[in-house]
Amino acid sequence: QVQLVESGGRLVQVGDSLRLTCAASGRTFSLYSMGWFRQAPGKEREFVAACDWIGGIRNYATSVKDRFTISRDNTKNTVSLQMNSLKPEDTAVYFCAASVKGGAPSAPGEYDYWGQGTQVTVSS
Question: Model confidence over 15-69: pLDDT tens digits?
């Protein structure tokens, strides 16, 4: 079992950068693929980024590719999302998730554990 806690969300301005971090409990963190998802008010949860167990395979949503970077540190049981050039449409609650599937899955249904989320608001 894995417990996930996100942090780093806050109010920022258009064009700013922000780094989200997800801390995982448990000794088997390195066995999981990790992903970031987001959900804006009135919208479905959507895929943002994911990486495999070592971070060698990374997958991004088209809307964030070249702006966001996912990384993980298996020695610290953390996964991060570096977000640059933020836009108002990036405003959402961001969730960290862990999957027992290999690769960097993009479907929410492929993830087994979820954090509670952290709010990111991009103001224009």
Answer: 999 999 999 997 789 899 999 999 999 999 999 999 999 989 999 999 999 999 9
Please state, in angstroms and as integers, the Cα–Cα distance from residue 37 to each residue in 27, 52, 64, 75, 124, following that order: 23, 15, 11, 23, 22
Listed in order, strand segments (DSSP E) in 8-124 are: 11-13, 18-24, 33-39, 46-51, 58-60, 68-73, 78-83, 92-99, 113-114, 118-123
Q: Per residue in 58-80, pLDDT tens?
A: 999 999 999 999 999 999 999 99
Tokens 């599937």, located at residue: 101
Cα 106 from Cα 119, distance rounded (Å): 21
